[in-house]
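Lab manual, section 2.4: Encoding a predicted structure.

Procedure: take the sequence of the chain (293 residues), apply the prediction step described in section 2.3, and record the output as C-alpha cells. A sample record is shown.
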Amino acid sequence: MRRINLLPPEERRRGGGLQAPGGLLGGLLISGAVVLVLMVGIYLLFSARLSNLEDEIAGLDGQITQQNQRLAELAPFRDLQASLDAKKPVADGIFRSRFLWDEFLEGLSFVTPETTSLDSFVGEASPVNLDAPVEETLDPPGSITFSGVAVTTDPETGNDGTTGGYVNVADFVLRMNSLRFLANSELTSAELDRETFEEPAINFEVTSRLVTTVGEDGEEVRLNGAGGDAADEPPGDAPPEAPTPEAPEPGGPQPGGPQPGGPQPGGPQPGAPPEEQGDPEVARAERLGDRPR
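Recorded output:
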C-alpha cells in the first residue's frame, strides 16, 4: 500500500522542522535513564557497604562492652598493684636491713662446742633502717644473751675438774666471737653447780652484740616468688642436653665405677681444697665461721 501525504506543502515543511527536537528529547531521556540506573546502582552499593559497617560497629560495641566488664572485674587488682608499688620500697628496706636469724641459728649449731649446752638465749636485733646503704653495718647493734651449762671435763686430758669446766666456757666465748653475726662476746657470769646435775657443771651467761649488715641476703623482695636460678632464666633458654654415653668396651672400665689408677668414690679428689678432702661437717662449719674442735 502506498502512503499519501495529504498535507499542504507549507504544513509538510513545518512538520519536518519539528522532527529534530523530538530526536534530541529521546536522546536526553535515554541518557537520563542511564544516569538514573547508575545512581540506583551506586546507592545500592553504598547501602550494602553501610550495612556492613554498621554490623562491624555493632560487633566492636559488643567487644568494648565485654572489655569494660573485664576491666571492672580487674579494677580491684589494679588498686592492689598500685598499693604494692607504694609499699614495695618499705618492704625492700625491711628486707635489706633485717637480721638473718635462720643463718645465725644454723651457724650457732655448728660452732657450739660439745662440752657446752645452751639452755636459752634472749636476743634483740638492730631496728630496721629503710634508708641505710647496702653493705653498711646497722648502728646501734643488737644484743643477745646466752645461758648455758658446761661440763667440767677437760677437753684435752679428759679429766674431770673445775678448771676444765671454765676452759669449756672460755672455748664457747671464743667460738661466739668467730661468728660473723656476733661481736664483742663477753662472759657475764660463771658459777659451779654441784646440785642440779649428777656431776658438777658450770652455769654460765654470755652477752654479745648482734651485727646486721645491710643487703647481705639481697636488696629487694622478690614478689614473683622466683627463688631458684631456673626461675630467673628467660623462657626458651633450655639447658644443653647431656651427651649420650658410649658403650664401654669389653673388659674395659665400667661407667660410674672406679677407674684404674684414679681416685676412688667417696675419697678425696686430687687437687681439691683441704676442706673438701676432710670432714664435710668441718668444711661447712668453716664457711659459717669456725672449725669445730
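Check your result against the sample. Confidence is low (pLDDT under 50) at residues 225-239, 255-277.
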